[in-house]
Design a protein that fits this description.
Layout (H helix, E strand, L loop, with lengths): L2 H74 L3 H7 E9 L5 E2 H15 E14 L2 E12 L12 E13 L2 E9 L1 H7 L7
Parallel strand pairs: 1-6
Antiparallel strand pairs: 1-2, 3-4, 4-5, 5-6
Helix pairs in contact: 1-2
């Protein structure tokens, strides 16, 4: 075999090797870019989904807050049909160490005892925190003692009730409430308990 022929074969093999390396590099580069693009698309999709989920969760928490505060606002304004609408039929209330009461007992207490004795309510919601299906509220309620309240005759004094409650909201209705109030502080304001 002539030297030229050997050189030609060697060049041909070298050229084929260069082409093979180039093609392999091109395929590898293309696949790498495709994988990077796919990874970026997956990350973008995940981020979009997380944003949607976060927005939906926040929207649900805001709706729960609205339902929860809606009960208190309806009580203050004597809108008993609205109170009934916002409370689940299986609603339970537990407050200040007493036994649990049901929906009708709760509405009866609010309508006949609280609102029968206290008028011109101005309830302020100082802190409203929602997590999952629970809404926690820290409140004050300025009101006029215009009727008998737990044996204390009307004083016509402007008093301030304070407390906290947690309401559980499911499917747009309050299903449970846990409340604690500063009952002693209120009775001191009414003159039923002497100031120390």
């Amino acid at each position: 075999m002539s030297r030229n022929r050997k050189n030609f074969k060697a060049k041909k093999v070298s050229l084929l090797a260069i082409i093979f390396v180039a093609v392999t590099f091109f395929i590898s580069f293309s696949c790498n870019n495709a994988n990077q693009a796919k990874t970026k698309n997956n990350a973008d999709s995940l981020l979009t989904n997380l944003k949607k989920e976060y927005k939906m969760k926040n929207e649900q928490l805001e709706k729960n807050k609205e339902v929860c505060l809606g009960v208190s606002k309806a009580i203050m304004n004597g809108k008993w049909d609205k109170v009934d609408e916002l409370l689940d039929n299986d609603f339970k209330y537990i407050g200040d160490g007493g036994a649990a009461i049901n929906k009708q007992q709760y509405i009866g207490f609010m309508k006949n005892v609280l609102c029968g004795a206290m008028t011109d309510m101005d309830m302020k919601f100082l802190r409203v925190i929602a997590e999952g299906d629970l809404v926690s509220v820290d409140y004050t309620n300025a009101m006029t003692h215009s009727g008998e309240f737990f044996g204390v005759p009307a004083t016509n004094k402007r008093v301030i009730g304070t407390g906290q409650f947690i309401r559980k909201v499911k499917n747009g209705k309050v299903t449970a409430e846990w409340q604690t109030t500063n009952a002693m502080g209120l009775m001191v304001q009414l003159g039923a308990i002497p100031k120390k």
